[in-house]
Specification:
The protein is mainly β and 231 residues long. Helices cover 6% and strands 63% of the residues. The protein has 1 helix and 9 strands. The chain is elongated. The two termini are 21 Å apart.
Amino acid sequence: MRTPARLLILAFCAILGGNLHAQVGQPRSRYEVGGSLGMTNSTVNFSPSIKQDLNLGYTGGLTMRYTSEKYFFLICAAQLEANFVQRGWNELIEDGSGNQYYRTLNYVEIPFLTHLGFGREARGIQGFVNLGPQVGFLINEKEHYGGALPWDTSNRANNVIEQYGKPVEKKLEYGIAGGGGFEIKTGIGSLSFEGRYFYGLSDIFNNTKRDYFGRSANTSIYAKITYMFEL
C-alpha cells in the first residue's frame, strides 16, 4: 500500500515529467539514516526594520530518507530530519553609542522534505534538491549586550528599541525550507554537501494591531554536511 508521503512524491515527480507519459517509473524501496553537522547564518525579518549584521550559529541532527522510485532521470525520496539549530539576530548599531547586541535562539526543528536526486544512484556523484515544509520549537534564548557602557539607546535607527529585554512570545515556528547540493555515494555510505535556505512564515513576537512589531520572522542560510548509510 502506498503511503500519503509516497503519493505526494509521485505526484511531484509526475509534474516534473511533463508530457513524457510513455515512460513508467522504476520502483525502489531503500531506507537510509545518518547525521548532519553545519553552520547557519540567521536574521529576523522585523517590521519596523532593524539593521543587522552576520549572525553565525551551528546546526546538527538526525536524517532519515526513504527512496521510493526512479521516475525518468529523477530519483524520488522523502526525507525527514530532527535538528538542533541556532537562529537569532545580530544588530548593526551605527548610532555612535558603541553598543553591541545580539540574541541567540535555540530551536529543535523538523523538516519534511521531498528529496529529488539526479546522477549516479550507486557509487559516484549524485546532485539533489530538497524542498518542503518545516516546523520548529524554541527551547531557550539568550540576549548578549556588549560594547561601550553605559548602554545608550537614545539614538537608535528608526527609534526601534522594543526588542531589548522582550522574550520570544511565539515558541512554535513554521516555514519553508529548500536547498541543493551533491552527494558522494560509496560502498560504506554517502556523504552530502548542501546549501539550504529557511524562510519563516510565523513570527517570534505577537503581531496584532496592538503589538509593536507587525513582522518578526526567522530566516536562515545553512551550509551542512550529512553522512548516511543504507539499512
